[in-house]
Specification:
Length: 434
């Protein structure tokens, strides 16, 4: 069995281009042009886990070519799903003969979204098991709300240093009110409740577009879930789910990152394929700072004629300002005029990039969960990437700086951005392998 699974794993060929560990970034001048936006990482990962709930093949399109998606496909293959690449962004996944892992997959330690195989395993097999859950380090990343949901649905769990195992003889619908808004706990509760007996109500649930996308996928497979995009979800459990064809939504964080890169370099960029409705707080903040922004159905254009003015942002769950764009916004504040402030209310310690920006001459100080910035001229420096979005922020700062920067540990960035170097180069960035 294990041999078969390993064989499957081999079939889901790695298609992420090799990423350089070190990058040299020289001043680019204004970034200018169009960028095509890939599928959303944070929608693709729960949808891939949800495929496990189905009993026939799914075709999932618009998957971003990023490391975390590769890991998810490998985890599915390791559980016995047949994973077949149709084209660059589309995979056929047949979970019909998948089985729960006897021991935790060592790959689960490499990304946060491995946790979704607990809810999906519980929903499909009555058992889920993962190893230590990885992901970016923002201080603590608890999973008590995930476990609270499993317990309410009738699961029992065992948590050790090496593994988390959840199981249930039968899952029963329940009323679950989360103590805090959590994307991951909402995803896991949806995954487990979709095939439970009876109705589940989730209160204080996350309402991010990627949650709505997961629900849209599951409903197309035959699930009965209402309330997506709001803080209350009603899930009527169903006995079976059939596979379907589905395309993942565009990545709002990727789109926001290129808008911020153009803003920091006083450039003009159009992000194509992005949904402006997902980025309302970013767009209004950039307008307040002096950028001209034009939105159409599936594209957003930004023009920054001069250095933008600093501003304040406070992160929060959707529809608040996304925490996954605050490091990039802080990099813009560093290159802007006047004072900027970032108050982080989701990951209170998400400021490991600040010390790297200081090496580039940034006037940024962090006290508790707030970064205070005074805009200045950045200069090149040797910096290292502490996590995914911090990496994007440091690339933005390096493009906007005077002089050459060397970024190390850049492989973090490939976890979440499809071909970021190629896309930045296409709009004028001067980036080469170190
Ligand atoms: C998801 O992480 C995203 N990851 C993160 O994106 C994103 O920053 C985060 O949601 C918030 O939007 C994926 O979608 C794969 P949470 P997740 O549970 O689910 C607290 C990126 O850069 N909390 O919504 O792990 C927690 O401490 C990544 O793309 C509990 O207290 O985040 C945090 O303060 C990084 N108990 C807050 O809730 C729990 O059981 C939000 O966390 C769970 C969370």
């Amino acid at each position: 069995m294990r041999y078969t699974n390993e064989k499957n794993r081999g079939r889901c060929a790695c298609r992420v281009e090799l990423f350089m560990e070190k990058l040299i970034v020289r001043p680019s001048g204004p970034l200018y042009g169009r960028v095509g936006i890939s599928g959303s990482k944070n929608a693709a990962l729960p949808i891939l886990a949800a495929v496990l709930l189905c009993e026939s093949p799914c075709i999932i399109g618009n998957l971003p070519a990023i490391r975390d998606v590769e890991l998810a496909l490998s985890i599915l293959a390791g559980m016995g799903a047949q994973v077949e690449r149709i084209d660059r962004a589309t995979y056929r996944i047949d979970p019909t003969h998948a089985a729960p892992p006897g021991a935790p997959d060592p790959l689960s330690g490499r990304m946060r979204a491995s946790a979704y195989y607990l809810g999906a395993g519980l929903g499909r097999f009555g058992r889920g098991c993962v190893g230590r859950i990885g992901g970016c380090d923002f201080g603590g990343r608890p999973i008590d709300q995930h476990l609270k949901a499993f317990l309410a649905l009738g699961g029992s769990m065992e948590v050790s240093e090496e593994a988390i195992t959840v199981q249930a003889a039968a899952l029963r619908g329940a009323m679950i009110e989360f103590d805090t808004v959590s994307v991951g706990a909402t995803v896991n509760a949806i995954l487990a409740a979709t095939r439970a007996e009876g109705e589940t109500v989730l209160k204080n649930a996350a309402s991010e577009p990627h949650i709505a996308d997961l629900v849209a996928f599951l409903n197309r497979c035959g699930a009965d879930i209402r309330g997506a995009g709001t803080s209350t979800l009603h899930i009527r459990g169903v006995k079976h789910l059939r596979g379907c064809s589905y395309a993942v939504i565009p990545d709002m964080i990727e789109a926001g990152t290129y808008l911020l890169a153009a803003a920091a370099t006083q450039g003009a960029v159009t992000v194509c394929g992005a949904d402006p409705h997902h980025l309302v707080p970013l767009i209004s903040k950039l307008r307040e700072m002096g950028a001209e922004i034009d939105c159409e159905e599936r594209r957003i254009s930004l023009f920054a004629a001069k250095r933008l003015r600093g501003a304040s942002v406070i992160t929060g769950p959707y529809p608040g300002f996304p925490t996954d764009l605050q490091p990039q916004m802080a990099a813009l504040f560093c290159a802007a005029e006047g004072r900027g402030l970032v108050e982080e209310r989701v990951w209170r310690q998400r400021f490991r990039y600040a010390i790297e920006l200081q090496k580039m001459g940034a006037a940024i100080t962090v006290r508790e969960n707030t970064a205070y910035v005074r805009g200045t001229c950045l200069h090149g420096a040797e910096i290292s990437v502490p996590d995914l979005r911090a990496g994007a922020a440091l690339l933005i700062a390096a493009c906007a700086a005077e002089g050459e920067s060397t970024l190390s540990d850049t492989s973090y960035i490939e976890r979440g951005y499809e071909d970021i170097i190629g896309k930045l180069r296409a709009i004028g960035a001067d980036i080469s392998a170190g």
